[in-house]
Amino acid sequence: MEMAEAETRHVLVINAGSSSVKFVLFDMGGEEVIAKGQVERVTLPGWKLDFTVRGNKKTVEGPEALNHKQALQKVFECLRADGGPLQNPGALLAIGHRVVHGGEKFSSPALINDEVKKSVRDLFLLAPLHNPPNYEGIVACEELLPGIPQVAVFDTAFHQTISKRAFLYALPFELYESDGIRRYGFHGTSHRYVAQEAARVLGREGDPSLKLITCHLGNGCSMAAVRGKTCADTTMGLTPLEGLMMGTRSGDIDPAIVFHLIREKNMAPDEVDELLNKKSGLFGLAGISSGDMRDVIEAADAGNERAQHAVQVYTYRLKKYIGAYAASLNGLDALVFTAGVGENSARIRHEGCRGLEHLGIVIDRQRNEANEQIISADRSRVTVMVIHTNEELMIARDTVAVVSIN
Ligand code: ADP
């Protein structure tokens, strides 16, 4: 009996993107990763599944173009194979899905049913690149593993506590009412996870007065101002394009630049969309093909002026928003860096915080260089932290919580 209970603690987390399906299988008994991997080139000819089960790496590939359901079928085949972690299908408690856009409907994770699926579909309009593959992933799991509860965890949900003064754009109000044009914010699962971790490290879990700024600096970049467990503001907007400078996204620009590109450069709307989302940011400014911060820093160090400008614009904007959010929160207790750049680049953290001593932010050079968890100096009034984000674990925890109350 004990054995059977122990065996039904697995939670599978699925992140179905436009051309990839990522998964992590957790044993939620000890929050341990049993298997993880991803199918690449989904919907394109020539798929590849890389995965690790209990430390053993494997690759399976084929020439054909798989749709999302077929890609998930390959994942399940590997997990359910002889000796695989889901050989006994009863081991799977539930599936948690990352869903990018939950609109105004979802401020917390939801058990998936027909109504939830309809809402995810209704939001295709606001997240045309993300919600359709997320939805495909949900439907495929329903078909492939009928009867297993599924939970949707939304990237936007954490930001639903943001008040009107911070989420409304100064546009005709009807556009908000009729079309839902407002700030939603993204990376919410990551901001929530690191805010929770920071509160735990500071010994202030559940303290509603704790004032945090969380900086998620990956390929996509966003910041959030958080009071206790509540998000007060975030830099991404209606779409993930607004705010900080990113790998290939521009972040904030004067919207009139769009008219200039259309009228003077004869660009079509889709071309402008592509320029701002895929050809701008570090990639556009530095002219370095990957838009990868490591390459940009290396080029900047080698004397490439465009790369130097790119790093300066990136860190200046970071600093500007730290100031803005300290003002928004009426003070600051801790500043948290996370994701690829935030967790690894002492240089970006240092430059983003330089000159902010007047706000009580003082970084200790050695702690910063060593990527320690607390990188502020002892005399710093604000605790500056580096916290490894773990969106998949957060989704798995949410999934267990939702399943246990339903
Ligand atoms: P994603 O947003 O796709 O999940 P990550 O969180 O992994 O991406 O972040 C990717 C970014 O992190 C890339 O720009 C990469 O260059 C950057 N990065 C990773 N390690 C370092 C490092 N040591 N120094 C600077 N940037 C780094």
Any overview of this molecule?
The chain is an alpha/beta fold and 406 residues long. The protein folds into 2 domains: 3-154, 2-Layer Sandwich (Nucleotidyltransferase, domain 5), CATH 3.30.420.40; 206-391, Nucleotidyltransferase, domain 5, CATH 3.30.420. Helices cover 39% and strands 21% of the residues. The protein has 16 helices and 13 strands. The chain has helices at residues 2-7, 68-80, 114-122, 131-144, 164-167, 173-179, 188-201, 256-263, 269-278, 281-286, 293-301, 305-328, 339-344, 346-353, 365-369, 391-405, and strands at residues 10-16, 20-27, 32-40, 45-53, 56-65, 92-99, 110-111, 150-154, 211-217, 221-227, 230-234, 334-338, 383-386. The chain has an 8-stranded mixed beta sheet with strand order 5-4-3-2-1-6-8-7, sandwiched between helices. Strands 11-10-9-12-13 form a 5-stranded mixed beta sheet, with helices on both faces. α2 packs across α4 (131-144) and α12 (305-328) packs across α14. The chain is globular and about 60 Å long. The two termini are 23 Å apart. Mean pLDDT is 95; it is low at 1-6. Adenosine-5'-diphosphate is lined by residues 218-220, 247, 292-294, 297, 339-341, 344-345.
Write out key terms for the chains shown:
disordered N terminus; Nucleotidyltransferase, domain 5; single chain; 2 domains; 39% helix; eight-stranded mixed sheet; alpha/beta; globular; five-stranded mixed sheet; 16 helices; binds adenosine-5'-diphosphate; 406 residues
